Each structure stands twice: as C-alpha cells, then as structure tokens.
Amino acid sequence: MSDTSAMLASLGIALGLGLLVGLQRERTDAGFAGFRTFPLVTIFGTICGFLGQTFGGWVVAAGFISLAGLMIVANIKEQSKGPVDPGMTTEVAMLLMFSVGAFLSSNALGIGIALGAAVAILLHLKPQMHSWAGNIADRDFKAIMRFVLISMVILPILPNQAYGPYHVLNPFTIWLFVVFIVGINLGGYALYKYLGQQAGTLLAGILGGLISSTATTFMYARRTRESPAGAGIAAVVINLASAVLFVRVLVIIGVIAPGALLQLAAPLGIMFAAMTLLSLAFWWFIRREHSRMPVQSNPTDIKSALIFAAIFAAILLAVAAAKQHFGSTGLYAAAALSGLVDVDAITLSISQMLKASQVEPQTAWRLVLLAALSNLIFKAGTVLVLGSRKLLVQISILFGLSLAFGLLLLKFWPDQ
C-alpha cells in the first residue's frame, strides 16, 4: 500500500469511527457534541498524527491541548445559559476519539478500529452497565475484588524462579495456576448468579461442574438428608457435574499444552459423553421433579486459594518424586492419590509435563482419567457420610457404571 493510500485509509477509518460514536452521542441528546463534531475530532487527531511524524510529537500534544481548551470554553458557555448535566462522558469520549485518530496514523488500523468500536459500545451500554452495577450484591462485589487481589496484586510480586527439591516449586507459576482455576470458578459463579437458583436439573449439573463438582456433591448430598424425596434430582446433578469435570480438564490442558489437546480430547471426551448420556437417561425417569441450585459459596475466597496453592505444590513435589524414583508406575499412584483431593491440581501438573515433553500424551490422558475416577470414589464417600440412603444407592449405580466404563477405556483404548 502506498503512503497516499495508507493516509486515505486511515482518514476514512477515522471518519467512520467518528460518525459511529457521534451517532451514538446524537441519539442520547449529549448536546455538547454529536454526529458532526466527533468525526471532525477523530480526523483532527489523525491529521495531527501524520503531521507529528514529520514535525515531531509536539504537534499531537498541541492538538490534544487545543481540543481540551475548546471543550473548557464550550462548557463555560453552556453553564452561562443555566444548569447543565455535570457528567463528563462526552468530553472524555472526545479526547479518546482524538487519541484514536492519532493512533490510526501509525497504520495500526485493526487496533484503532477495535478501540473506536469499543468506545461506541461502552457509550451505548450505559443503561445496562448502570443496572448491572446497581444489582451487584456486596458479597459478589467482594468476590470480584478478591479476584483482583489474587490476580493483580499478589501474582505480580511473587518471584518467578524455582525453589525446593526437584526444582518444581515456582511461586509465580503456582499462583498463576491458582488465578486460572479461580477464574474458571468465578466464571461459573457468574453464570449461576445470572441464571439464578431456579436453574433446572440439567443446568444445575452443568453449573455445578463449572463451579466445583466436589462442592456440588457436598451441597446436594446434605440437602437429601433434609429432603430425601429429592435424591433423584441430586443424583443427576452430582453425576452430570462430575461429567462436566472433564470439560474443565480439557480447558486446562488446552490452555497450558494446546499442542497435545487433540490427542487427549478423544478418550476424555468419550468419558464425558458417556457420563452425560448416563445422567440424561437417569434424568428421563425423574424429569417431573424440579431442582433449585443451592446457594453457592464465594469462589474467590483467599483461604481456599491458599489451600489450592498448597495442594498444587504438594502434588508437584509428589509427581516429580514419583517420576524420578518409580517411573510411570509412580505417576499412576500419584494421580490416583491426588485425584482423591483435587483433579484440577493434578491436571495442571500433568499439563506442565506435557508442555515440557516429560510425559507422552497417551500416558497423560490415562493419568488424568485415573485421577477423575479416583475423585468419583471420594465423592461417593461424601454421599455415604452426608447424603440419604436413597441417594447413596442411586449414586452407587451411576458412579459404578461410570467407573466401569472408565476402567474399560484405560484397558482397551489403543495407544497412538
């Protein structure tokens, strides 16, 4: 593209973005600036950017200051006519669109278009954003702030180097995975808050698996002690949540070791499909019942994050020790024991090994599946302790069939 063509393209995009934002302001009766002013401001920014490439960056700064001065004068004139809206959204949008226009002169057209479109969308979604902010409960706002603390305050200050035996304990890496898992949990919690406690049986199982299948098992098992008639619903939700666990596992593997995802997706995906079909078949017989999601706990609790970090660190050490001293046999033992406590942590450890080519994909999926099957045994124990006898019988059947299918996969799935 020639220099002239590049300039014309930048100016054309600046005009289009300015018209887009200006149209939005015009429809909201912003008064101060609208359909004509915003394209002029954005083009002005682009021209200043091009001039700055020849005469220096002071041209862009002078244009920005000049625009700010014009806005001050215009506001003073508006105030002399009577009371005015004290909001500054339009003024800030003008300064931002000037900056977008200047940015377009650098030929980063894709990013410039995205920025301009984002400004228009943010301005357009004002009612929805105000409504959403007003509807956030104190508990949910604290959850968001805790996630900010976990991800943006604690993570950046942690040392990024290995410590301890086997050199596998990297504080930054361990906490980065904590942020990742907490982020998944927070996403599931946000869906639960959006859909509410009226979520149906199948949706309750899916959300339970996205948030925490173990926590879902605890809550639904306890509920059947108070209301044994809901055992069928609880069994479907617990089994489906345990199936969705395989989706979480594949997401984790896909993020950390994307190159190996396809090789692990087939057997783990088949296990997910088998447990899901089993849940659907059982749900068909008790579909006239209705389910309400129990109140979910805070997914960003600092104490829970620290516990997960400790579990993950312990599993990293256990897996490294097992691999060094016992080879693949030790890895299987570590996966089975780790799965009793937490499948996410052992999946993270195996994904790291996959990425570093320390374990083959055909071994990796077997380790993950073994951990998940071990976790089913732990959940069955939870139902035995907390749930009703009826739920225990139903979960024993569902988990028993799932365990049998999983063991068949481990034995007969061909090595690739």
Question: Which features characterize this protein?
Answer:
mainly alpha; single chain; 416 residues
Mind explaining what this structure looks like?
This protein has two domains: 3-131, no CATH class; 138-412, no CATH class. Helices cover 80% and strands 0% of the residues. It has helices at residues 3-27, 37-55, 58-80, 89-104, 109-124, 126-135, 138-157, 171-195, 201-211, 213-226, 231-256, 261-285, 302-341, 343-355, 361-386, 389-412. It is elongated, with a radius of gyration of 28 Å.
Summarize the structure in short.
By secondary structure, the chain is mainly α.
Topology:
Elements: H1 3-27, H2 37-55, H3 58-80, H4 89-104, H5 109-124, H6 126-135, H7 138-157, H8 171-195, H9 201-211, H10 213-226, H11 231-256, H12 261-285, H13 302-341, H14 343-355, H15 361-386, H16 389-412
Helix pairs in contact: 1-2, 1-4, 1-5, 2-3, 2-4, 3-4, 4-5, 7-8, 8-9, 8-13, 9-10, 9-11, 10-11, 10-15, 11-12, 11-14, 11-16, 12-15, 12-16, 13-14, 13-15, 14-15, 15-16
Cα gyration radius (Å): 28 Å
- What's the mean pLDDT score? 85
What characteristic shape results from the CA principal axes?
elongated
Order of helices and strands: HHHHHHHHHHHHHHHH
Q: Strand-residue fraction?
A: under 5%
Low-confidence stretches: none
Distance between the termini: 48 Å
Count of separate structural domains:
2
Q: Helix share of residues?
A: over 70%
Alpha plus pi helix count: 16
